[in-house]
Amino acid sequence: MRIQELIKGKGPEVVTVPATTTVQQLVQTLADHGIGAVVVVDDGAITGIISERDVVRALPEHSDGLLQRPVSELMTRTVHTCGPEDEIRSLAGLMTEHRIRHLPVVQDDKLVGIVSIGDIVKFRLQELQDERDQLESYITT
Q1: Strand 16-17's sheet: what is its strand order?
Q2: Fewest CB atoms within 10 A around its CB: which of 6, 50, 73, 108?
Q3: Which CATH number fits domain 3-140: 3.10.580.10, 3.40.630.10, 3.40.50.620, 3.10.450.700?
Q4: What's the burial of 4, exposed, middle or buried (CB within 10 Å: 0-12/13-18/19+)?
Q5: Which helix (H) or strand (E) holds 12?
């Protein structure tokens, strides 16, 4: 199965913020949307990605005034991306290897979706359940 099929099922909405967004605004955005990360976009280009994990990890070092800092100070600047034609199984390996939980989907230099490790796990569990059902059906017929 390809990423484009996964995006069709979950929807193409991607929450983005500019790099000047404060950490406080970011935290509110994450809470409002019930998500764990957002893509940082400036002038139509992906400049980073920031997650709730990044905020938590910054707390010990920047406990004073962290909420007023811009996300550009905390975000991951090297953003791994994938395309809609990529295979879901290959992305599971990429995400595991690079220890990333969110992967923006880009087509023709445009952000068209985002997949999380949770999306990949959900897909894999459904795939395993389908295989199990097929085997049971084969055995009982």
Answers
A1: 16-17, 37-42, 45-51
A2: 108
A3: 3.10.580.10
A4: middle
A5: none
